[in-house]
């Protein structure tokens, strides 16, 4: 026993469990699930919470594997499966993240119903996973189902609805429907500015997305303006080394590169790489992408000498 944890030998665990009735085991499993849910980080993308998630991950996987809580407390079960999946996705464990997202959706549909808000969130998360795998049609179907739930239960301007709208826009962009994607991102931006104000991180997220679409249309000056505005928001509210700040820097670096400002692009990419190596690790997909982007700029600078 320590100040933060209790350790029990596995044989003692087995003997203790075997002495319990079925009802006691089910009650204990549900209580354990609720306890882990209370401690597991809600925001899987927050790298600052990853050390806690690492400590709780094995426990979270164990308690969600027990059948009792899915019946006695299905909302807690789905919520914890969702949090685990989001965390694993952020850590680039895509295979296991997909497994958890599929399980979460199946449990939500079976025990909460097709129109429940948690079912909508599960649909959205699995759509995001399918998008990352390149299954655009499958992702679009799930995003549309999630949107119908959010709009019906929360309204068109609720943050969850707008988040789904934002990710649908990103999917359309990857399908090369840039004009429609731009319309969705501009709509999301207008809602977020109205809901949260012009200097909120969610507003910055939409600024970045609108900027990315303008960049693809060749409007580099407007894209740069939006990326720089978003960067100022992220640095003020999230800090200079936050992963969202790094994502925005990536977009700004791409614009600078396209404008031929290679020295400025190199400085931005070096900063991005440093953030991602520190916060995400050397082998994370986003870290690798930053390293590749920096290498491309350095190669072009060398060719100019």
Textual characterization of the structure:
This protein has 15 helices and no strands. Helix 3 (50-65) crosses helix 5, helix 5 (74-90) packs antiparallel against helix 6 (94-111) and helix 7 packs parallel to helix 9 (159-174). It is 79% helix and 0% strand.
Provide the residue-averaged pLDDT: 90
Principal-axis shape: globular
Cα separation of the termini: 63 Å
Low-confidence segments, given as residue ranges, are none
The oligomerization state is: single chain
Question: What gyration radius follows from the Cα positions, in whole Å?
Answer: 22 Å
Backbone structural class: mainly alpha
Number of helices: 15
Largest sheet: none
Report strand %.
under 5%
H/E series, N to C? HHHHHHHHHHHHHHH
The helix fraction, in percent, is over 70%
How many strand units? Answer: 0
Topology overview:
Elements: H1 10-18, H2 22-39, H3 50-65, H4 67-72, H5 74-90, H6 94-111, H7 117-133, H8 136-153, H9 159-174, H10 178-196, H11 201-216, H12 220-237, H13 243-258, H14 262-279, H15 285-304
Helix pairs in contact: 2-3, 2-5, 3-5, 5-6, 5-7, 6-7, 7-8, 7-9, 8-9, 9-10, 10-11, 11-12, 11-13, 12-13, 13-14, 14-15
Provide keyphrases for this structure.
305 residues
The gist of it:
The protein is mostly helical and 305 residues long. Helix content is 79%, strand content 0%. Helix 6 packs antiparallel against helix 7 (117-133), helix 8 (136-153) packs antiparallel against helix 9 (159-174) and helix 11 (201-216) runs parallel beside helix 13.
